[in-house]
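Extended Data, panel c. Modelled sequence:
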Amino acid sequence: MLIDWQAAKEEWAAEVRTRLIPRLQNDRRFPASGAFIARFERSVERWRAGGEIRQLINDANEFAAAAELLKVLKADDRLSYEPRLSGTSKTIDFLVRGKDGSRGWIDVKTVAPAWNNDEVAWNRFVGIAKGFPSNARLVVSRDFCGAAIGGQALNTRWSFVRRTIEVEAKAALLTAQERGPVRLLFCSAGEWREDDLEDFANFYRTGNFREDDWAQNAVARYMTEKGLSFTRVLSGFCYLKRHHEDAEACSFRKDVEGPAMFAPSAYPECQSRKLNHIDQRDRFKPAFRVSSRCPALVTDFSRTYLLSGVARHRPNPIRRRDPVTIDCHSSFIRQGTAIMPINAQGLIEKIQTLPPERLMEVEDFVDFLRLREQERALTRAAAAASAPTFAAVWNNPEDDVYDAL
């Protein structure tokens, strides 16, 4: 039985009109919905005239993102679409304005790495895989589309880097009157998963890779070879998953972070920390003060992630959370994830008040931190030592294809 792809795509566009457009049009918090919808219709006409469907997919992802944002914005917030930045021709996809005049920006990027399963792609992946860290690897099989899966996984991480730098450049153009938290929302149709963004978000915020991040050497080498660096001005990353055949998102999450276990040192276990997969009414709270009862982490080391022939050898944290006390104002436009400065003298004074047995625990913890820093120094040295391995496979014509995505 042959599938009529043209008819299937027409049916999908009709579903977008039926399920999303009325919702956007009828929400008074989104007065710019008319221009937004008109752009979608123009993309449909260009596609019907023989154009690529990529722009239509991007527009549909922005539709889905707008619908998710409106679910959690306050009643007196206002959502604008592609406002032009003062004095420039640049735009950011969404601007949220609060009643008090505060602002928050969200730029939407679709990451859709190409599927390439030929022998050249496989050899390239094998060469890069030689530089993977010894404790975390992406395991794929050539017989089960390993070239394509591995290539998509790597290119996803590199796309995160490039798109982040693009949005950082936009954020730098904001005037004093326009400034507010800037977030980057990445869209997936299933080619990559939420834990890919978790790893990247941890790296972006702290400058250190997660200990269980299989791509750490590949990303570090990529940024070095391309001369790329972050200003780290973005407030957070959002994740949206929408299957190509669906009109609405099946998953959405703001301020993505990885599990506390194996996280970089900037994430102390029991200090100000955002929680993953929280209740729907709290999911847009960018910062939390958690009670002394920290979320418990249970790790099943016998599991691996398995998807489309790829097994990810990484402990699978099962997050079990006790009741916590959350204290902050829920607003998308508030600044997220700021690291509080440490008062060294005040910390010393607190330590001096502890009984002797507690001082021994503090000393043990300090020794642990020092040992961890030494181990990370060794990891960075190992990444540098892998440079010759990467150099042999990095700069080649195939790499230009990935960069163009």
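Residues 267-331, 334-341, 401-405 have pLDDT under 50 and may be disordered. This feature is highlighted in the accompanying rendering.
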